[in-house]
Amino acid sequence: MVCAFAPSPSPSGKIQFMAHNLTTSYLEDSITVLHQYKTMAEKAMAQVSDIQLFATLDDQMNSIAVIVKHMTGNMRSRWTDFLTTDGEKPDRNRDTEFVEPPDTREALMDRWETGWTILFSAIEPLTDADLSRTVTIRNEPHSVMQAINRQLAHYAGHVGQIILLSKHFAGSNWKTLSIPRNKSAESSR
Predict the structure, then answer these.
(1) How many structural domains comprise the chain?
(2) What is the C-alpha to C-alpha distance for residues 135 and 146, in angstroms, rounded to an integer?
(3) What single string gives the DSSP state of each residue in the chain?
(4) What is the pLDDT of residues 125-172, one digit of tens each?
């Protein structure tokens, strides 16, 4: 059995490392990975101040808040009526996702939770039989599996951005979300 380590929160809220469960279920693994992305981003955002959530490194960069607004706009569009309507909803205005994020951490995190709730409400009821069904995104046909893969890759990129910005802003106060430096040997025990 090959195990990859991924962070998960313990009851104390501290990150611990646990092996993935061995599974042959694409859906189970995808849902687990999505929960890990969500948790990692939340742990990263918790390490920055409210001001830092809205800060940009330069005028071409997005703030953490803008990334969250974009991700949740994407989630609402892609996962609402996932099996029956195009993943690019007619009322989505993607360009507005990159300006004027919610003005408070609370409002931003409410939007974050809503996006993930929509996503998990759409994906958790799926069965293996659904994986070969056809859905559309911007009028392009995708199997359900392809659509999930597309979003897994998209969210991974943005979660990485959130982590990078959070780590930058937290500086020496950063608490690692993965195996700490010089602790690799300890983590494999």
Answers:
(1) 1
(2) 9
(3) ----EEEEE-TTS-EEEEEPPP---HHHHHHHHHHHHHHHHHHHHTTS-HHHHT--SSTTSPPHHHHHHHHHHHHHHHHTTTTTS-SS-TT--GGGGGS---SSHHHHHHHHHHHHHHHHHHHTT--GGGGGSEEEETTEEEEHHHHHHHHHHHHHHHHHHHHHHHHHHHGGG---SSSPTT-HHHHT-
(4) 999 999 999 999 999 999 999 999 999 999 999 999 999 999 999 999
User: Which of 103, 94, 98 lies closest to 75 in space, CA to CA?
Assistant: 94
Quick one: average pLDDT of 11-31? 67
Residue closest to 120 by CA, chosen among 62, 179, 33: 33
Burial class (CB in 10 A: 0-12, 13-18, 19+), 91: exposed
pTM above 0.85, yes or no: yes
What does the alpha-carbon distance between residue 166 and residue 161 come to, in Å, rounded to a whole number?
A: 8
> Is residue 139 assigned to a domain?
yes
Domain residues for the domain of 52 are 26-178
What CATH number should be reported for the domain holding residue 91? 1.20.120.450
